Amino acid sequence: MKWLLRILFIFVAAFGLVIGALLLMPGDKLAAILAEQVKTETGRELKLSGDVKLSFWPVLGLEAGPVTFGNAPWAGSEPMLSAESLAMGVDAAALLNGDLRIRRVVADNPVLRLELSDGRGNWELQPVEPKAVTGSVGSSPPETSQQRAVTLDQLELTNARLIYTENGLTKFDFANVDLSASWPGPASPMDMAAQMAVPGGKVSVDLKIPDLPAFASGAVTPLQLALRAPGGEVGFDGRVNLAGEMDGALEVKTINTEQMLAAFGQTGVGVPLGLGRVADVSGQMTYTSAGRISLRNMVAQLDNNRFTGEADIEISDPPKVTARLNGGDIDLSRYNTAPAASGAGTGAGAGSTPRDGWSTTPIDASSLSLANGEIRLTASSIILPEIKLGPSDLTLSLDRSRAVLGMNPATLFSGKVNGQVVANNRNGLSVGGKLTAQDMDVQQALTTLVGVERLSGTGSGEFEFLGVGQTEDQIMRSLSGKGSLKVGPGVISGIDLDRLMGRGEGAGGTTVFNSLSASFTMGQGVLTNTDLLMSLDNFRADGTGKVNLGARTLDYLFTPTALRANSGQGLSVPVRIVGPWSSPSIKPDLSKVIEAAAEGQLKELEDDAKQKVFEKVSEELDTVVTDRESAEDALKKKLEEEAKKGLLKLLGAD
User: Fold this and answer.
1) What's the pLDDT score for residue 144?
2) Mean pLDDT across the chain, nearest whole number?
3) 140 pLDDT band (50/70/90 cuts)?
4) CB 348: neighbour CB atoms within 10 A?
5) What is the pLDDT of residue 6?
């Protein structure tokens, strides 16, 4: 028995001497031994600088100064992991049983580079195959080691930089990240939490993968994710694979969308009121490794407006969006892109719309560059700041700061409008369009578009226009184009043709007409018309003149003709309309009446003189003369007769 105790004592003493020797060994020697062992097992370089401290029981631990761990041979030249300090601990008892139970990994200011290429991840550590040993024939092959169980109790990265590259393209590069993770057992879920400083606060992410071994092997596994950021949060419950492809239920909620966009680098984006300053969007999301997001069964509550439909988004710069949306009654009556808290755009400060002019406030069209793509919207009604649309089918196409709004059709001013309107901000702002309208309320249209309220009726027409400028005033003063208009029965307020034709004063009443037609051209903000024709029961009216759209003034000559006056020859009393749209001067143009009367009087005097000449010639020539031609013939005949008589007398005849 004594010999057994002596052997045990010698074994313990020897083990203690070995441990003591290791503990007393200089740090650089320990670092060299560990680096050699790691390279033997993984084929990767491990560099440990500064003091290296070891612990052996119950945790086999390592603490070191600056540390770098090499990348996979096929990956980039930068190390997979580098840190200013690193502390690791492994359960010694579990290690003796063949399991790898990592108690802790703590790193300060680490840089972690994760790379995926052709299905291979640089985090996959392939053990180095031992060299074949030549032995005698019949020697037993080496035993295959069983796969070890690997678990992680605690992972902490402080002020880390995380870089993820896929097939040579950097998918994300985040700095100032605090990350912690735990995976206590092979059958336990892996829980991870991360925080990152962003403008306005911090972004925090909680992630759970129930089956980490399956995920690491490339299988599709469940995933639960919750992201919280300044201004909103994102939740996902679905499935994921190692390539980052996802499929599941997504919900995005914001209480301040602009703040949340700024947290992710989209600063200065003005979200229009009514389109999601406060948002709740949910649907079935699919994300592919090609950077494409698909949303199906989508429900979006954007401020007070609700949309349903589907959307596809390609992640690029800028993103490409393709969507088909359905909406009920959409209210954009308070639409503006100024932040809700600032109150900008609500007052009438410098640059606001003057009483009798267009706005000189610069138009911010930068939102046209936020995305490319096509969005189709069908809605029961759409209320804009100054226009209300009824049931409409609209298509918005965006391409490099150029937007085209197609109407297929739109219900506008109680009529149907087909065509398109274009806003182009590629090289300065320009707006244009080509529209066809049917059964439109003319008074609504003119009042809303150009501030003219005097003409009412139901009409149809065509309209092409183009304007350039950075303000409403500049655009209106640059308008060019053409158009035509046909109106059925209607009313003109402010002028009474019956009274005008009867007593010479026609202001202050109304004129009811049966039809109206006109065409026009535009240039430099001035509309010119030469063929207005209005039909009434007792009159017809012609018009010609100009409408200065930029200056909001009129100079128009309106000529009504009484069809039953003057023995059916018609009596015309021209009316000149001059002045600003808000209060034009409407007066009979007496100069035109006098000119017409003078021309008539002169013609009458001329006719009387001619008649007296013809009567005198008839008397002298003893024949009837009614016009110039007959007078010439009669004179010629008289001369011939006189010549004949003179000749006969000369010859001695009777």
Assistant:
1) 42
2) 77
3) very low
4) 8
5) 43
360-389 in b/e form (b: 16+ CB < 10 A) is ebebebebbeebbbbbbbebeebbeeebbb
Using one digit for the tens of pLDDT, what is the confidence trace for 555-586?
A: 999 888 876 644 444 566 788 889 987 788 87
Model pLDDT for residues 194-223, shown as the tens digit of each residue: 998 888 889 999 999 998 888 878 889 999
Residue 425 has pLDDT above 70, yes or no: yes
Q: Is the peptide bond before 58 cis (omega within 30 degrees of 0)?
A: yes
Closest of 182, 114, 178, 177 to residue 153, by C-alpha:
182
Distance (Å, whole) CA 597 – CA 45: 111
- 369's enclosing H/E stretch is none
Nearest CA-CA partner of 320 in 298, 292, 347: 292
* 326 within 8 A of 309, measured Cβ to Cβ: yes
Question: Judging by beta carbons within 10 Å of its beta carbon (0-12, 13-18, 19+), is residue 547 exposed, middle or buried?
Answer: buried
For the chain, count helices (H), then strands (E).
10, 36
pLDDT at 21 over 70: no
Sheet strands (E) in 425-479: 430-441, 455-468
pTM over 0.70: no
First vs last C-alpha separation in the chain? 199
- Give Cα separations from 302 to 80, 250, 276, 331, 471 (angstroms): 43, 16, 4, 10, 29
Distance CA 574, CA 544 (A): 11
Q: Which two tokens stand for residue 578?
A: 């001059």
Residue 115 pairs with which residues in a beta bridge?
165
Tokens of 582: 């808000």
Residue with tokens 């979006």: 300
| pLDDT tens digits, one per residue of 70-85 | 888 888 788 988 888 8
Radius of gyration of the chain (CA): 46
Q: So what's the pLDDT on residue 267?
A: 76
Which helix or strand (DSSP H or E) is residue 33 part of?
A: helix 27-42
CA 111 to chain centre: 37
Tens of pLDDT along 32-66? Answer: 766 776 677 677 888 877 777 766 566 566 777 78
Contact between 276 and 306 (Cβ < 8 Å): no
The two structure tokens encoding residue 460: 């149809």
Q: Where are the alpha helices (DSSP H) in 150-276?
A: 212-216, 257-263
Q: What is the pLDDT of residue 541?
A: 84
3 state SS of 84 = coil
Structure tokens at 554: 């009129």
Structure-token pair, residue 12: 């313990």
Helix or strand run (H / E) with residue 444: helix 442-450
Q: d(Cα 548, Cα 577) in Å, to the nearest integer?
A: 13
